[in-house]
Amino acid sequence: MKRLHYSALAIIALAWSGCSLLDSIGGRRLKPEYCADHPADPDCRKDFPDADNSCHSNASCMAPTAICDLSGSKACVQCVASDQVSACTGASPVCGDNHVCRGCGSHADCPLSNACLPDGSCATVAQVAYVDPATGTGNACSLAAPCKKVSDALATARPYVKLKGTIDEAVTINNQNVTVLADPGAKLTRTNPGVILKVDGTSTVEIVDLAIADGLGGTGIGISLLPGNMASLTLLRSTVSNNAGGGISASGGTLTVTQSTISGNTGGGISISGGQFDLTNNFIVSNGGPLAVFGGAKIDGIATGTGAHRLDFNTITANQTSGTLTAGVLCSAIAVPLTFASNIVFRNGSGMQVEGSGCAWNYSDIGQVITGTADINADPLFVNVSQGDFHIQATSPAKDTADPGAMENVDFDGDARPQGTHSDMGADEVK
Asked: Whole-prediction pTM value?
């Protein structure tokens, strides 16, 4: 008779309760019902060898689930955390809790380089120039020996520059293609008056998760794109704040700003006087002041309708100007009329919220009566104005009222659009 590892007391107890591990007290065969619930039981494997669907090594598995989860389910999966480097590659380098490869969500997801890229892939350590003013030495700009200055990192000509800590430096990027990454809390600033970051020439620059802040004096502008250049600058999940001369000044090139915050800039939030622009899913709030000539945004001198001229899904509020000047969005000298959609421009200063015959507004909540398509003039019901939380409440009249033809698929926080029948106006989509 086959010896079983179950005690006699356990068998008697199960039999008394109306259940049994065995088809008979004689123990000739374990019950199929029990083994269906306990496939790892060694006696079940002996009695029902054909019923064991467990894997025992990676050799038992094949793509797209080529890894055996030996320490867990004993099933073939796409990846396990201990083997994610070989199993998860490209834009999906991280093994998730569900044993499916996904993109990186933070620099910590990339242990070899500590550099998570916007597309979800991990940079290699050789691709990145590292800057840390607290620990940096020399100009190697490596992970083990970072440099102190951004200019040294740019001189390496590596495609990625990663910043850590507070960096006090006036930075110019000229005729160079580079992506600037930032650790949480990283800030680029300048203690002397002047522009903090200039982008010029034919540069293509992307800045991710960085704060550009605290420029001093009337020339203390956060970011400048100079007239006549061909540069392209993209800001993603970044902050431009508390610059005395203004947040962003773009007189040429192409400016793209998304999922970012432009706030507290005394000279005004964003001034665009040439080139192309694409501004979506941003909070442009609390800019300007009693001496400012504009508050949230000023768009003027656009001489052509070709290229991108987009200002959609932004929340523009709490901006101020001198007297009764327009504190929301001021348009002037627009050669070809521009149409913006799905914005909230509300409660800016004491004058007009939007002004200028060159700009039209559709599907937007504007704090004044205008004649655009499906516009409203109603309190957007921000979550907490006194604490600077300009997300909207679930009962907001801006909910489900954005342009029904809009193709925007995420909001400021990265939440999917739409959550309801249509997307919500402004930078925030109510979950």
From this structure: 0.85
